[in-house]
Sequence to fold (287 residues):
Amino acid sequence: MDVTLPEKLKAKPGKGKKAKSGGGDEPFETMLHAAARGCDEETMKFLISKGADASSLTQDSLSPFHISLLYSNAPAVRFFLSLKPTPENCHPSRACADGRTPLRLALEGKGSQDKVVEVLKLVVKDATVHVVEKCWNESLSEGVKEVLQSKKGFLPPSAPGSGAGTPTTSSAPLSKKAQKKLEKQRAADEKAARIADEKARADAKRKVKEAKARAREEEARNKREEEEAIRLVEESIRQEKEEEERQRMEVERAARAKVEAARAKVEVEEKARQDERLWSWRGRRRR
Fold:
């Protein structure tokens, strides 16, 4: 089983120079990219143990680490961050080819708000203060802002000592109708993100399950071939021993026949001598 082979992707028109993946001249999505959308740490370990490359890139120049950030898959993010030495394209603060940092990718996560926050907690400590400031100005979620505030050295624009006594942005209160519409849209977006996340997770699990099944089949086939090879060797040894035994018994029979022939010859010669002495004695008595 080769987990480094590309998944089936729709061809995209290229723009500018493409980055190369770790697995060949053309970038492609591997099984590890697919698993990074929704699989757990054990699945990541399994694919890595089978030769999957954590530094490989898709056609969009995204590594499996980047995919795990975009799909708010905290277990996968945690796994990639734990790899030592750090694989190329898995650095917690280095931007991908299009300029988005891991923190930015995490903010764009397709998971629920709780999952986005969980992933942000894993990468915020390695983000630069400048990146955190940019994300702060674009973020509206209180949960996200709480995580960003935990960045050492970062002071929110409205915090004391930050050089501004009021928030950088203000807005008029929304009407109840607008609030309901906003909440409805937010709920629809979260539902769509949840459905997409569940589908990606199911697809990734299915692919990994198929990979494990192929691995088991390959292992069983190798075992059968090994057992057949052992049987042939044992059969060859048995036949060789039987031939050696047959030859030994043939040699023993020939030796016994030779001894019997020699004994018979001696007996005949002895009887002839005895007969000769008897006739000689009778001849002397007649005289």
